[in-house]
Specification:
about 270 residues, alpha+beta, Muramoyl-pentapeptide Carboxypeptidase, domain 2, 4-stranded mixed beta sheet, 7 helices, about 30% helix, globular, disordered N terminus, binds zinc ion
Length: about 270
């Protein structure tokens, strides 16, 4: 009997989590009011969200049909400024992957994060020519990693320059990259040129895109501040501890399930 009860409780939690994600997915547009981030990337939402323009210069928005090209104005500004800086440096236009849903919140499939309008995925693949409409909806990811190092067939100096521009951009809190990418940068740069690597955080996956997370904006008192990145550039023991793990390029292949409750303030954002 007790087992039966536990099962019912578990099912209620699972179904509840799914229903929440579906609700956030089905909202087509942003909430009114001023822009503000509520909660964290893994349990949060967004008011006054802004869409990244589809036809902006220096980038293309991937899979627009997913409606995940929304963010806090700081995030939009970051992407546009990065695109401008990359263009000025002769780097090919980059591809912008998932950002947030119009009001943020949990996603019905894919990420556990990207919920509060401060996260943006940028693909490493830098196509020489703009992608066609059909390619934009079904892009093919290209890994930069081979074994525990970068893949010399795909990884180029432009990737390093793009990452450095992103890491040095104002308002960037951290950038997730595959541990093999971080290690390759650690090895390729002298110690006195590595301080920007502090913001590059090793994480599973992130071998075909990097994931930028902005810091809490000043207009968002309900934004949950993340623990600061550790002191130092993270080269040496920290990145090596990741490289010793068995499944380097791929993240653990469990579907995401929302376990953290959203802040109460997100209730009114959805309505
Ligand atoms: Zn991401």
């Amino acid at each position: 009997m007790r087992l039966h009860l536990n099962l019912l409780v578990l099912m209620a939690v699972l179904c509840g989590g799914k229903a929440v994600a579906q609700d956030w997915y089905q909202v087509n547009g942003p909430s009114g009011g001023p822009a503000a981030v509520i909660g964290s990337a893994a349990a949060g939402c967004l008011t006054g969200g802004v869409a990244l323009p589809q036809g902006g210069e220096g980038y293309q928005v991937l899979r627009p049909s997913r409606n995940r090209f929304w963010g806090h104005p700081d995030t939009i500004r970051f992407v546009r400024n990065l695109a401008q800086a990359a263009q000025a440096g002769g780097i090919s236009p980059f591809l912008v992957g998932d950002m947030a849903q119009p009001r943020g919140g949990p996603m019905a499939f894919g990420h556990g994060s990207h919920q509060n309008g401060l996260d943006v995925d940028i693909w490493f693949h830098l196509p020489k020519n703009p992608l066609r409409r059909d390619e934009i909806e079904a892009p093919v990811p290209i890994s930069m990693v081979q074994g525990t190092g970068t893949n010399s067939q795909t990884w180029t100096a432009d990737h390093i320059r793009l990452l450095e521009l992103a890491a040095r951009a104002p308002g960037v809190d951290r950038i997730f990259v595959n541990p093999a990418i971080k290690q390759s940068l650690c090895r390729g740069l002298p110690p006195d040129k590595r301080e920007w690597l502090a913001k590059l955080r090793p994480w599973w996956g992130h071998d075909e895109h990097f994931h930028v997370r902005l810091a809490c904006p000043a207009d968002s008192p309900l934004c949950e501040v993340q623990r600061a990145v550790p002191d130092g550039d993270g080269c040496g023991a920290e990145v090596e501890s990741w490289l010793a793990k068995p499944t380097l390029p791929a993240p653990p292949s469990k579907p995401h399930r929302q376990t953290r409750a959203l802040p109460a303030a997100c209730g009114t954002v959805l309505e």
